[in-house]
């Protein structure tokens, strides 16, 4: 069973014509772009966007990426792409689901891992910077706060 994330965000997209092949099926490489859209939404929700990462002195390259294709997405199809934060103490691990927006049927499952790299020294960090850990803590606390 896949580990559920503690914080999630999602985006909805409609598959554009330029993402499909001659039989109107999304070319496999474009799914990574869809994951990135959801990841950006998640990072924005955390208050630790790519701009904030850079401002804090860290780059976060993707070091691992896995995709499992169950059903193809097609031209014009509405997709819901969900990103869930799974790990953040030593790396940034995010699980994804790409679903058909109308039926909820799973099309693709994926996971990515990123590590912090100091921009100045280009050294990989063995733990995530305080800025990320603090952003996650704040978000978790706000979720626990009574409405």
UniProtKB/TrEMBL annotation:
Broad class of enzyme this protein falls into: hydrolase
Annotated keywords: Hydrolase
Protein name: Esterase
Molecular function (Gene Ontology), one example: fatty acyl-CoA hydrolase activity
Pfam family, one: 4HBT_2
SUPFAM superfamilies: Thioesterase/thiol ester dehydrase-isomerase
Tagged with keyword Transmembrane helix: no
The UniProt record lists the keyword Hydrolase: yes
EC numbers for this chain: 3.1.-.-
Family the entry assigns: Belongs to the 4-hydroxybenzoyl-CoA thioesterase family.
